[in-house]
Specification:
The complex is a heterotrimer of chains A (about 70), B (about 280) and C (about 100). Chain A has about 70 residues and is mainly α. Helices cover about 60% and strands about 0% of the residues of chain A. Chain A starts with 14 loop residues before the first helix and ends with a helix. Chain B folds into two domains: about 110 residues, RNA polymerase, RBP11-like subunit (Gyrase A, domain 2, 2-Layer Sandwich); about 120 residues, RNA Polymerase Alpha Subunit, Chain A, domain 2. In chain B, about 25% of the residues lie in helices and about 35% in strands. Chain B contains five helices and twelve strands. The radius of gyration of chain B is 26 Å and the shape is flat. With about 100 residues, chain C is α+β, with helices and mostly antiparallel strands. Chain C is built from two helices and four strands; from the N terminus they run ββαββα. In chain C, strand 1 and strand 2 form a beta hairpin. Chain C is elongated and about 60 Å long. The chains are: A mainly alpha (about 70), B alpha+beta (about 280), C alpha+beta (about 100). Chains B and C meet through strand 1, helix 1 and helix 5 of B and strand 1, helix 1 and helix 2 of C.
Chain lengths: ~70, ~280, ~100
């Protein structure tokens, strides 16, 4: 849904690094290098960012459609 | 007992503890994880939530946000003079009032407004929820001190572990300097220097013994020194790492002193029973 | 912390330590091993979440179990204090070197 605040395994904070991670990976940087530079060193924390799918953006689209269909007050 | 700091920065400390026993090191580790108090959101009152996440999910996310903790000015609720009902000495209120008016927005931990400027989220850019146009989130959160044994959100550390200091013995009479150990070692402890195998990185050895197994001449012995410990403590930012270790030793001392008190009241009971 | 005596023999003592767990019991047990008068020391916890530790000490008679426990606890407190001082000193030294 949305990036978890902490790593499931060790409890380290990871959510603060998500947006920078996505931005840089989209720009074409290798994810491994970005994780290294963000200081995410253990593989438990790395998989949190690597394997995450930000589904909340998809759900927000439905909310927007519902908003448009609603008769304007 | 002797301590040497190897690394220290804002979030992490690495040190060597010499002249202790495993039980003492373990007590310290257990206390750091489960008993050093830190601040976390414990109760959330939702006034309005039209976001796509349920109240419970948002409350859970809020709880996991590490808050800067001031141990001197706050009490644990169960030790507070208010009796745990909640007063300004054991509780901090945080507010959040945000609405996506014209375009979708992301709500960040930085949007939380705290009563106490000292107790704030350690990072301002932790996403809490995303709001579509017209969605609103209004809430009031109560942060309290707590301990890791009650909930992991109150644990001040993420990775917190120790290992024995490695002892690497190479029998130079048997060693034929084949270099297999340097090849297999995952931590790069060995290096070939002028055709001879040399230990260059003793402390990073993880005692995996891969080199022992691969050595055909059985020239390497890996041992752990169980009186010397390499501690590695990483905090989530609520407390500085050196403070966590210090507090842990204070708590251990307090435990021992409490035990002495309880024991002396026990022996007093005996004497009264006899007379 | 509350102690409850389960059994008291001439040279042995079994107590329940309410409000503690492995964290303290294990150091206490190891510390008692350092005492020559202690013949046996051990504890059990039924389950780490619900059990109250039961601690058992037996001595050779030259010292009462209570005395052995008291001395062991004092040594733990002393060790914790020593560690804290050493640690603070080390941190100070490390910071000074950095500047």
């Amino acid at each position: 849904m949305i990036i978890p605040v902490r790593c499931f395994t060790c409890g380290a904070l990871i959510a603060d690094k998500w947006e920078e991670f996505v931005r840089r990976v989209r720009r074409g940087e290798p994810p491994g290098k970005v994780l290294d530079e963000l200081g995410v060193k253990r593989y438990c924390c790395r998989r949190m960012l690597l394997s995450h799918v930000e589904l909340i953006d998809e759900i927000l689209k439905f909310e927007e459609i519902r908003l448009e269909r609603r008769p304007s007050s | 007992m002797k301590v040497r700091i190897l690394e220290l920065d804002d979030l992490h400390i690495k040190f060597i503890l010499k002249g202790a026993n495993p039980a003492f090191a373990n007590a310290l580790r257990r206390i750091m994880i489960a008993e050093v108090p830190s601040m976390a959101i414990d109760e959330v009152v939702f006034l309005e939530n039209t976001s796509v996440l349920y109240d419970e999910i948002i409350a859970h996310r809020l709880a996991l946000i590490p808050l800067r903790t001031d141990l001197e000015s706050y009490n644990l609720p169960e030790e507070c003079q208010c009796g745990g009902t909640g007063c300004s000495l054991c509780q901090v209120r945080l507010f959040l009032d945000i609405e996506a008016v014209d375009e979708p927005i992301t709500v960040y931990s930085g949007h939380l407004k705290s009563e106490d400027p000292k107790v704030v989220p350690v990072k301002d850019n932790i996403p809490i929820v995303k709001l579509a146009r017209g969605q609103k989130l209004v809430l009031e959160a109560y942060a309290r001190l707590g301990r890791g044994k009650d909930h992991a959100k109150w644990s001040p550390v993420s990775a917190c572990a120790y290992k024995y200091k490695p002892i690497i013995k190479i029998n130079t009479e048997l060693c034929n300097n084949c270099g297999l150990c340097a090849e297999i070692c995952p931590k790069n402890v060995f290096e070939m220097v002028e055709g001879k195998i040399k230990v260059v990185n003793e402390l990073s050895c993880s005692l995996c013994r891969a080199c022992e197994k691969v050595c055909e001449k059985e020239a390497i012995r890996i041992l752990g020194d169980d009186t010397t410990f390499i501690f590695n403590v990483e905090t989530v930012g609520s407390l500085p790492p050196e403070k966590v270790v210090e507090e842990a030793s204070k708590i251990l001392e307090k435990k021992a002193l409490k035990f002495i008190d309880a024991l002396s009241s026990l022996t007093k009971e005996y004497k009264e029973g006899e007379s | 912390m509350r102690l409850k005596v389960i059994k008291r023999g001439p040279n042995d003592l079994e107590i329940e330590i309410e409000g503690e767990g492995h964290t303290f019991c294990n150091v206490l047990r190891k510390e008692l091993y350092e005492d020559k008068a202690v013949v046996y020391a051990g504890y059990t916890i039924d389950h780490p979440l619900v059990g109250i530790p039961r601690f058992y000490v037996r001595t050779d008679g030259s010292e009462s179990p209570e005395e052995a426990l008291l001395k062991a606890a004092q040594r733990i407190a002393e060790k914790a204090r020593e560690f804290r001082e050493q640690f603070k000193e080390a941190v100070r030294g490390y910071r000074e070197k950095r500047e």
